[in-house]
Design a protein that fits this description.
There is one protein chain. The protein is of the alpha/beta class and 253 residues long. Strands 5-4-3-2-1-14 form a six-stranded mixed β-sheet. The model has no long low-confidence stretch (mean pLDDT 93). The chain has a single domain, classed as 4-Layer Sandwich (Nitrilase/N-carbamoyl-D-aminoacid amidohydrolase), CATH 3.60.110.
Length: 253
Amino acid sequence: MRIALAIPTLTPRIDVNIQTICAMAAQAARDGAALILFSEAAITGFINIGDPGYDMTLGQPIPGPATTLLSQAVHASQIWLGVGLFERNDAQLYDTYIVIAPSGAIETTYRRIDKHWHHWHSRPAPTRTYAEGTTITSSLLPIGRTTFLLCGDLFNDTGLDQVKQLQPEWWVVPVARGFDSDVFTKEQWYTRDRYFYIQRAQEANVQLLLVNQFAYWDPAYTYFGGAMAVTKDGVILNEYPLEQEGMLYIDIE
């Protein structure tokens, strides 16, 4: 079984990002992958600013035009696809991750449970606009029983406890992590910070698939990309270098 962790270079244009996602899914299928996974908020980039008037324009209904295009591409390539997006549901906005089956059906819709995603920028965000999910569930994918946690969910102890109870085979963690006061160099990521993620997977006793967003059009903030697959014992099976577009393939038994 082959898995692809995809790191496209995201742009400010939703249509371009979707085209790239569809093209990478088709390439992964040609390369023998049964499943391709993209980062958190890969449709737009993680560009919400805490202004509801602007942020709601980023939101996509589920199902909606964006998911329809993805479903058509997935059906044509006969591959499973996981991708993050901002979900607009009536007057609320969620940080969401979906999985689309080769049939084109949306099989999984996971809403981030940790509140910090809409406090990313300086101003407090009104809770009537921004919302979270409450429960972590598991999905049966070609790789086995799988749970999803988006970015900061990984360090939410309530979420970790739920994962332990579910006892999945795989833990998919799509993130949007960039250089900041916590991680300010590639060397710091490799020598320290990636191990925080690995340690959480070890605590849950679950194999980890992590894929990060790659976007650098904002001169003030760069999402540095990268991906890795880790065993439940904390051994890195394979990883993709930071600040590079591409796909990491993992072959599992």
